[in-house]
Specification:
alpha+beta, six-stranded antiparallel beta barrel, BSH_CzcB-like, Efflux RND transporter periplasmic adaptor subunit, YknX-like_C, RND_pump_MFP
């Protein structure tokens, strides 16, 4: 049976209508999806964290400087030329060991002159004693006046005073003569030697460096124990408790930890840095640590504010109303909540009032977000927490 042209035309028309309808519906669907995606993308993406309770123990890591228990720069007390030095860098010395000797001919001449002056004055004193005895004998026989006897006695006392002054002068030069020999003040290690044979040194100053300032001849350090100095910021004064200990690491022993015990603190703050110099003491077994070492010092103490909550420091917003946090409500709108801030650190800040443990706080609020704006809450990939806060919230 032959198919009529009208039937074929009707079938073709139906197929065309179906195809056109499919295209229209598909475009409507795509447009709706695009509109929804555009609307969703128009909302700023924010990452939120929940406040966490402050820990019971507070850990604080600060830079420190390790110094010798005793350290003495040694300067000469006489002027002259270095005759010889006997101890070099790293030498172990005992108290009184000779470090160097100085030739001081000018001092030797002054010493000899002082002894000669003493001998001359001593001769005059002896003569005044003989003269006084003679005048006293004549005075007893009334051969001379009492005034003459008194004058002779005064001359003898004056000569005696001159002898004592001359003896003091000789003792002064004897002391300086001993300073021609440079000795170690205590048991320790020579950490610096800044002289050579033939160098000229002057009393109290050592050599002159390029800037014209005096430099020491030697430095001797006692390193059986060490002192650790740490500058503690004033906001962390509460960690300075009498029984506190510090865990110390140094660059040359990365896998080894040392313990330092609290010794004292300056009890005052540097107005330029707002820090207080704090001193710890460290044992130095086998003298493995050297003075001048940089140290990373971890301090731990009980936290009296463990009942408070912490948020990322990056979450803080300072506006004309004061310090605020951008909180996301249940309907995903933003509300700027006024808060009272406690102690602040690099990554976390204590909040004394204004938030609760279930609030959703924007970790790093965008600069253009406003009160009541709707936001899209996103969850960062695990391990990608830019705020460095609350890993347990990831």
């Amino acid at each position: 049976m032959a198919t009529s042209p009208k039937l074929i035309a009707a079938a073709g028309g139906c197929l065309l209508a179906l195809y056109v309808g499919y295209i229209v519906v598909d475009r409507i669907h795509v447009s709706a999806a695009l509109a929804a995606e555009t609307k969703e993308n128009a909302l700023p993406d924010v990452a939120v964290v929940k406040p966490i309770q402050s820990p019971k123990k507070v850990a604080l890591t600060l830079p420190g400087n390790i110094d010798a228990w005793y350290q003495a720069p040694i300067y000469p007390q006489v002027s002259g030329y270095v005759k010889m030095w006997y101890k070099d860098y790293g030498a172990r010395v005992k108290q009184g060991d000779v470090l160097a000797e100085i030739n001081a001919p000018a001092l030797d001449a002054q010493y000899a002159q002082a002894k000669a002056d003493l001998a001359s004055i001593m001769a005059k004193y002896n003569l005044s004693n003989v003269t006084l005895q003679r005048w006293q004998a004549m005075g007893r026989s009334q051969s001379v006046s009492g005034q003459s006897v008194s004058v002779a006695q005064a001359d003898q006392q004056s000569a005696k005073a001159q002898v004592e002054a001359a003896e003091r002068n000789v003792a002064h030069f004897e002391a300086l003569e001993r300073f021609k020999t440079i000795v170690a003040p205590f048991d320790g290690i020579v950490t610096s030697r800044d002289i050579n044979v033939g160098d000229y040194v002057h009393d109290g100053g050592g050599n002159l460096n390029a800037a014209g300032a005096a430099s020491e001849l030697f430095t001797v350090a006692d390193v059986h124990k060490l002192r650790l100095f740490v500058s503690v910021p004033e906001v962390f004064q509460y960690v300075l408790q009498p029984d506190i200990t510090a865990e110390v690491t140094v660059p040359q022993f990365k896998d080894r930890k040392f313990t330092a015990n609290f010794l004292t603190t300056a009890r005052g703050y540097d107005p330029n840095t707002r820090t207080s110099t704090t001193e710890f003491e460290m044992d130095n077994p086998n003298e493995v640590l050297w003075p001048g070492t940089f140290a990373s010092v971890e301090l731990k103490a009980n936290n009296e504010n463990s009942h408070l909550y912490e948020v990322p420091t990056s979450a803080l917003v300072f506006q004309e109303k004061g310090m605020q946090l951008a909180v996301v409500r249940d309907d995903n709108t933003v509300h700027f909540q006024n808060v009272t801030v406690g102690r602040m650190a690099d990554t976390a800040t204590e909040i004394q009032a204004g938030i609760g443990p279930n609030d959703r706080v924007i970790a790093n609020p965008p600069a253009d977000v406003l009160e009541g704006d709707k936001v899209n809450v996103t969850v960062p990939q695990r391990g990608y927490n830019q705020s460095g806060f609350g890993k347990e919230n990831e």
